[in-house]
Write a structure and sequence with these properties.
Four copies of one chain form a homotetramer. In chain A, about 25% of the residues lie in helices and about 40% in strands. The first copy, chain A, has helices at about 5-15, 50-70, and strands at about 20-25, 30-35, 40-45, 45-50, 75-85, 95-100, 105-115, 120-130. Chain A is globular and about 45 Å long.
């Protein structure tokens, strides 16, 4: 790995202090984030908002890129596609990202989000990042 | 129109108080929202965050549905696809939504987001809503 | 399973004779199709065309629905999102579909396509089907 | 324009002989293609297949890029997102593409497909192309 959990978390804290979730694990091609759900993430009726889940998924793929490629601060999301599958209850969310491709110019990943303790995904996201020249 | 600007805004304020943007206009198949950018919408480096733009786009399509179909509180987003085109500066964003389909069970819309005063879009979003039985 | 490999294949042959690929396996939530690449699937330069891969992925999710839900001829694709990851060589393609959700009105699945003998995916697809009332 | 209708059509005929549709018009940021529907494009029940519409949309954005950027044979589609809105009857399809961005490395476009003579779109597609260094 190019960066471990602590160094990825430190990088996020420095560069993206308003980020979503804490890094729980990184491994070849993968990363896991946990979001402790707070009032700012909720929608009326007691469910987690769509933008919160999309922000979490976006961050999870970015963390997988950081851990596997190194500290590329200038990577930017160019496309994000989200399918919302079930209404998440107000509990911690886990986001499991997996890189599908890391090319010279683009990285693509997918993320499955589920509620801690439930097996069924609440959302599934794919996203593309444009990578700066290395 | 089933609802005008004031009644859609009142509906949003009641049901989605943490929403994104203010309703500026509604018309057959379309709606326009304005987001006054604040600290909570920013990313380091002085740009609007992706989740902010996705939340704004999602709300804009919902507003177009409300104005054209009526107050369907139980409509839920099932898919959202975003293309991020340019880095938005820290200025008001305008989101122009257009409904592509309003069926019995699904509504689909597209949104173009641009910075107030610039013609070029900073993001383009399509989204699908599942509609409750009417 | 509601349908096995032979009965799903017979259903496809009857209802979608111009379909993509042969059913190799079905299991809870999953299905595998194989496409024997022919001239009609190729693009100049010796690679499989995008529409061929999208058609294969679309069929693979449909097969997973048939096998797990039963013969729903009236299911229709409402959204398909494809990420093209690598240039496939002219060899058999395998499409592995997995259902992310089977609801009352919508089913969502994801598909990973890879060349027979290669581990890396050449394309990744998610798609939504609208299901008829059962 | 970098290429006119005749030169774009000649380029397609040479490089993509199995392409979808004929070029009807090109203009700044836009292109229109017409598909004369034939047996190979149909699904049982008398409707145009999804892969046909996705192939047509993909080609329409490529034509808009060619007309506006010049003959970039090595451009490749990296993402395509399709929303299927209505069941198209068996009549000519028109695809209207519009470029949302032409950057140094990526081009993004959207396409609205409708049946000749009907105003309502049958499908809406966005797609991203990776451009070779120029």
């Amino acid at each position: 790995m190019e960066m471990d959990v602590a160094s990825v978390q430190a990088f996020l804290d420095e560069h993206f202090p308003q980020g979503y979730g804490r890094v729980e694990a990184v491994a070849p091609q993968t990363a896991r984030l946990r979001l402790t759900v707070a009032d700012e993430h909720l929608r009326p009726g007691g469910t987690v908002s769509g933008p919160t889940m999309m922000g979490l998924a976006d961050t999870a793929i970015y963390v997988a890129i950081l851990a596997n490629v190194g500290p590329v601060a200038a990577a930017v999301t160019t496309n994000l596609n989200a399918n919302f599958l079930r209404r998440p209850p107000v509990r911690d969310l886990l986001a499991d990202a997996r890189l599908l491709k890391v090319g010279r110019r683009l990285a693509v990943g997918e993320v499955s989000i589920h509620t801690d303790g439930d097996a069924e995904p609440v959302a599934h996201v794919t996203a593309t990042y444009s990578l700066p020249p290395r």
